[in-house]
UniProtKB/TrEMBL annotation:
Keywords: Cytoplasm, GTP-binding, Nucleotide-binding, Protein biosynthesis. This is Peptide chain release factor 3. GO terms for cellular component: cytosol. It comes from the Bacteria. One of its GO terms (molecular function) is guanosine tetraphosphate binding. Belongs to the TRAFAC class translation factor GTPase superfamily. Classic translation factor GTPase family. PrfC subfamily. The keyword Cytoplasm applies. Its main location: cytoplasm. It comes from Methylohalomonas lacus. GTP binds at residues 18-25, 86-90, 140-143. It is found in: Cytoplasm. The keyword Ribonucleoprotein does not apply. Residues 9-277 form the Tr-type G domain. HAMAP family: Rel_fac_3 (MF_00072).
Length: 526
């Protein structure tokens, strides 16, 4: 086997999806510890400050490096190279989070044992659904009392429409948590609370070692095996193909904080999560094992020095090998560019990349020529599809403080919009600029950057818009009629596409009923 296909096969690229406080940061840290990417617990703090106050986040963004380096974390585990992509979960939730999910091959869903399925998890799962991303589930905080496994399974299946198949099964919860039974290894994995920091636990006990199991579990042994028996009757058998299609999820139980059950979950990612998958382009499917390099940009982030306006474009390698110094073709601009200094984004530090393989993420320095959704190849005119804009959920009207700065405002808004920092809408019947976002912090970031980078002072006003839909219709006559009859709610987005800004969900539903030939789309491709 050539090095290239070996390297490709050993890549595992995934993201953790969860509702704030479910334990994503704690779990990330445990994974990095296991991968040797960090030495000390407590290192993965950088994003936390985002939760406390916007101003902290701004302060942190001034030192840009922090959030950039924690966006993609690469580490070795067993014989695999793991790329863990960060999906901000707190106040800094934005479209980036959604788009990051277009660059992964699987996702690890963290659920709080007591709280079950929560709002943000639901939204992130909707995005995973668009690409049938395989999902691995980690039920966290087992050191606390929570819902029973079957209650949780029921909730996940009902709310997220994915079948649960347990890989491990807990013996007790909260104060009486004694460990998990690993169904496939047919072993019981005991947990000793005092051992958490040492990262080691008592040796596994084989399922047929009755004396050993009794010694650790006492009478709980019978309960455990009765539960497992019952679970076997009610849960489907694990079906690898159904997992790959995103229809079934293998479920692990544990506690990120106490380092229980985390290794088993990481072992699963390493052994069974899919390696680099195929990607659809306009004309054909690109397979990772193809020799020619290709990839797409899913995120752009401002770089260290805001004064220089250089940004880092995150590119997911889809096929072939990236080698330092190589020339790659910028398809949208139809020109070649030499990449002298792409970087890889390790947990602690940025490093120059020598080589990158399918599944890897590289950071390209970008002085404005690269946009989210751009495709890079070795010459072939490909265009990767499926990197969407999502309908924003919050809207604000921009209020300019100095009218003489109108031109700079338009320039700034357009550029920040191309970068994906926000979405802009221009109503047909006014000169307003309406910004749309999926997280409220996006507005603050845009105002701050308009001021810092474009010298424009602006504030926001609330605006009666509940949601946006992109309008599409094959029939030009019907579309014209619609435009004539509904002008007050129509706007152009940053790319000139027609959008309907609905004042309420009720209005949207009524309008959709009234105009059955018009499509109202909640996502639009770049
Ligand atoms: P995030 O918001 O999803 O990144 O969640 P964090 O990792 O910051 O965790 C939120 C809170 O839950 C923190 O106070 C953690 O210490 C705590 N936490 C995380 N994992 C566990 C766990 O396994 N057990 C308990 N009891 N607390 C946990």
């Amino acid at each position: 086997m050539s090095t290239f296909s070996e390297e490709t096969r050993r890549r595992r690229t995934f993201a953790i999806i969860s509702h704030p406080d479910a334990g994503k940061t704690t779990l990330t840290e445990q994974l990095l510890l296991k991968g040797g990417a960090i030495q000390l617990a407590g290192t993965v703090k950088s994003r936390k400050s985002a939760r406390y106050a916007t101003s902290d986040w701004m302060e942190m963004e001034k030192q840009r490096g922090i959030s950039i380096t924690s966006s993609v974390m690469q580490f070795k585990y067993a014989d695999k190279i793991i790329n863990l992509l960060d999906t901000p979960g707190h106040a800094d939730f934005s479209e980036d989070t959604y788009r990051t999910l277009t660059a992964v091959d699987s996702a690890l869903m963290v659920i709080d044992v007591a709280k079950g399925v929560e709002d943000r998890t639901r939204k992130l799962m909707e995005v995973c659904r668009m690409r049938n991303t395989p999902i691995i589930t980690f039920i966290n905080k087992l050191d606390r009392e929570g819902q029973t496994p079957l209650e949780l399974f029921d909730e996940i299946e009902r709310e997220l429409n994915i079948q649960c198949v347990p890989m491990t099964w807990p013996a007790g919860m909260g104060a009486s948590a004694k460990g998990v039974y690993h169904i496939h290894r047919k072993q019981f994995l005991p947990w000793a609370r005092g051992n958490a920091d040492k990262g080691s636990q008592p040796a596994p006990i084989d399922a047929d070692d009755d004396a050993g199991l009794r010694e650790w579990l006492g009478d709980d042994k019978d309960t455990l095996f009765e539960e497992i028996e019952f679970m076997r009757e009610v849960c489907p058998d694990f079906d690898e193909a159904a997992f790959r299609r995103g229809e079934q999820t293998p479920v692990f139980f544990g506690s990120a904080l106490r380092n229980f059950g985390v290794s088993e979950c990481l072992d699963y990612v390493s052994d069974h999560a899919p390696g680099p998958i195929e990607h659809q382009t306009k004309d054909r499917v690109v397979r990772p094992e193809e020799e020619n390099f290709s990839g797409f940009v899913f995120k752009i982030q401002a770089n260290m020095d805001p004064a220089h306006r250089d940004r880092i474009a995150f590119l997911r390698v889809c096929s072939g090998t990236y080698r330092k110094g190589m020339k790659i073709h910028h398809v949208r601009q139809g020109r070649d560019i030499q990449i002298a200094n792409a970087m890889t984004l390790m947990a602690g530090d940025r490093e120059q990349v020598e080589d990158a393989y399918p599944g890897d993420i590289i950071g390209l320095y970008n002085h404005g020529a690269i946009q989210v959704g751009d495709t890079f190849t070795q010459g072939e005119k490909l265009k990767f599809t499926g990197i969407p804009h999502f309908a924003p959920e919050m809207f604000r009207r921009v209020r300019l403080k100095d009218p003489l700065k109108t031109k700079s405002l338009h320039k700034g808004v357009n550029e920040l919009c191309e970068e994906g920092a926000t979405q802009v809408f221009r109503p047909q019947l006014s000169n307003d600029i309406i910004l749309g976002a999926v997280g409220v912090l996006q507005f603050d970031v845009v105002a701050w950057r308009l001021q810092q980078e474009y010298g424009v002072d602006c504030g926001y006003e609330s605006v009666p818009v509940a949601t946006a839909r992109w309008i599409y219709c094959d029939d030009a006559k019907k579309l014209d009629e619609f435009k004539r009859r509904q002008p007050e709610n129509l706007a152009e987005d940053g790319s000139g596409a027609l959008t309907y800004l609905a004042p309420s969900m009720v209005n949207l539903n009524l309008t959709m009923e009234r105009w059955p030939d018009i499509e109202f789309l909640a996502t639009r491709e770049h």
